[in-house]
């Protein structure tokens, strides 16, 4: 057992400053799997090391995707390590051999959590979800379900279910993204509207969006060129602007 602060310091550097220099990186399997099971930020940071062991040293982790699914909570769009987490999640969900129910569960959970996410996170997660649809066409039923969300009396998706296979995500519809098409931020609404059209086969590059901050969004809006919009208005007459105003007979704006 290590203090939380020490866990974080070790896990931040483990994947690039420790594992590459070990003769037997597999010795870290137990440490990383235990850290991955702790939850919160520690689990997020353990992902880097686990990815190396799974990808390069044939580590088998039966409940890996179940645990990854459980890490998706409202805080995931606000944490300091958001960019690292979504970069690795993108890698873990890149395999075309993953079952459709699993990917659909991730899409649905990310979409549900997006309803309360800040704009800078939404501009990253919507292209992320679109890429998942491109890799796994079987999940497009969430977008093109006959009748759509308008004819569903209730959403069959079970948000509280910890097991992705039991979440009933494939029976649901992606009404959350449809809701985001009315988002107050125009860029978010525009990004969400992409799902109304046929997706291109080329994946969106989300690498530049992973670390997008609220400051950058605000700075971009401030630097936009203001376009003069012609307005049609009724010229003021009299003191209070009314047509048949008694004051207009006695007072003038000249």
Automatic annotation (TrEMBL):
Transmembrane segments: 31-54, 85-107
Pfam families xrefs: CBF
InterPro entries (alphabetical): CCAAT-binding_factor, Noc4
Entry keyword set: Membrane, Transmembrane, Transmembrane helix
Any one of the GO BP annotations: ribosome biogenesis
Residue ranges constituting the CCAAT-binding factor domain according to the UniProt record: 43-192
GO CC list: Noc4p-Nop14p complex; small-subunit processome
Keyword Nucleus tagged: no
Family designation: Belongs to the CBF/MAK21 family.
Listed name of the protein: NOC4L protein
Native source organism of the sequence: Calyptomena viridis (Lesser green broadbill)
